[in-house]
Amino acid sequence: MAGPIAFIALTAPHITRRLARSAQPLLLLSGAMGALLLTTADLATQQTEMFRGLPVGILTLAIGGAYLGMLLVAEWRKKP
Asked: For residue 31, what pLDDT is reported?
């Protein structure tokens, strides 16, 4: 029952590869990036007045969905 938190598993490897500028999958860095994203989303929902009371899954869904959408648009524009 992870729900939208699964978006972290989809976005973390892509963010890591872009930051490291590597074509290879970086397993340890992807795990660290996923932990950082989830911790940041959790702290934002607990400490930020704007997100207070919002389930962390909704925030990770918004972050992951927005990033995957941007990634799809960027890949779509690359192809002629």
From this structure: 93
Query: What is this structure's pTM?
Result: 0.76
Structurally, how many domains does the chain consist of? Answer: 1
pLDDT band (50, 70, 90) for residue 2 = low
Range of the domain at 33: 3-78
For 39-76, letters b (16+ CB in 10 Å) and e give eebeebbeeeeebeeeebbebbbebbeebeeeeeeeee
Do 42 and 56 contact (CB within 8 A), yes or no?
yes
- What stretches of the chain adopt beta strand conformation (E)? none
Structure confidence at residue 32 (pLDDT): 94
